[in-house]
Amino acid sequence: MVIAVAACQSSTVRRPYERPAASQVSGGVLSLLWRSDVHVHELFEPAPQECASGALVGKQLVIGSRNRQLSSYSTESGQRLWQVQAGAQIESQALFDAGRKVVYVGANDGQLLAVDPADGAVRWRYQAEGGILNAPELAGDNLYFSTNRGRLYALTAKDGKWLWDYERERPEEFAIHGDAAPRLIGDSLYAGFSDGFLTSIRPATGDVQWARSLASGSNQYVDVDTTPVMVQDTLIAGSHSGGVYGLSATDGLVKWRLPVEGAGSPLKHGNDIYFVAPREGLHALDGRTGRVLYRRGLSGAGTVTVPQSLGPYLVFSGSRTGVYVVDRATGRLRQTFFPGRGMCAAPTIDEANHRLYVLSNGGTLYALSVSW
Prior knowledge:
Thrombin, subunit H; mainly beta; globular
């Protein structure tokens, strides 16, 4: 089944390989609402990538891109509301702070920007060392974020004032592209690093409570690029070479391990967790024991984003393909949406309106309705 695309806000002629198509597997669950051009790439650009994800602010979506701009779009029509220069390429996910009415977004040059969603005006900016590839963790009055130089920062959310930073030595061997976002759970901040260690840190001071190697004997590609989750008293994280681990949250002792190369960050839903590995596909596990509930292959998807929950589904993107919609309970593929150049950006989920918004590698922002 091919979805026809109506005229949108931009009159740019899209190239044939950027025309979106949907594959109906068993009952159509996706409907295209609108599309809008964010960054029009050159005709002969061989393999563009746009990995930024947006933040919902009421009826607008604020999103960055590799064109060094931050933009806002109406979620109802796709019309661009404003666009401002960010100064550097953006590949990270934006985060909306409803209490302070500000959007935080990290850039590839290490800047963390706090912008007014009404017009994009910068309230404050902080210059970190290394690029920012994830959304910051907001906890009370503080922000925590990591950079691809192996450094973890704590700032005040109000004005971006530096509180502390923590750094681990980067390995001499090649590292995998990507970084883990820190996660505050209870009284501890958990963060992974490219040297293969997962750390538990006191969020007030930056002091290390414990550090555990997840390299599992490997000395290459040991990166802990997964953002941890907690299932009851079991902390779950993984490394590229070692697989997925269930750990004691108090001291990092290993409870169980599933050796899956390249396992991505887990999604928690109840006591179950879901993750994707490039070679071995989508996995569902019992987070308490590590028992595999199901596994589904994803041939040719490329690098896959972290699964997100939307109604009864899991939703994620493939860098060589596009959006996947899967039954969470069974892993059965319901529908795919392939825009032609793939999607390395994670979808922004709008649970209340049964929608998702996702930026394609070709630079087009799509709004899709999801039915169940």
